[in-house]
User: What shape does this take?
Amino acid sequence: MNPILRRRLLTLALLNALPLAALADDREPATVPAAPSALTITEVWSRPTAPGASTGAGFLRIRNPGPEDERLLGAVSARAGRVELHQQVQADGVAGMRPLADGLVIPAGGEVRLSPSGTHLMLLDLQAPLTAGERVPMTLRFARSGEVPVALRVESAAPETPRRAAKPPASTPSPAPAADAHAHH
Ligand SMILES: [Cu+2]
Assistant: This one.
């Protein structure tokens, strides 16, 4: 082939290829999942604390609809000197708790629940009592989702859940091991 014609053809081929390449670049981000799927955080609540009490506990429910495991690493709140992630443990029949050093995994497509009888967020060095009806701002820190602000509703009883129907009436609260353990902080 004539070298000049060949170069022309090559140039034409490159020019034709350009728009396609640009189109491919534009399309690429849309086909790749951009950000991790949002978590669903519900039933975010806490209990009122007695005057002078320095600790409280936060409870919530986290759903992870994403394809990757998520991990709750910790939290901060302006109302507490610090917030720790605690796990309820049973040692020699005595309920206690210890910090979750590696955080709490929320499995892909699954959910975890922080509750008075299990894992909870421990608010330490409270500046003032938590009073019923108020909202306590808190920022959760996740491995993937980063910082997620929430507000704990301070209530005497747990938010409405399907499990409550099987429990005794709220007027006769059952002894909560978590509350006893918290008092030792
Ligand atoms: Cu605790």
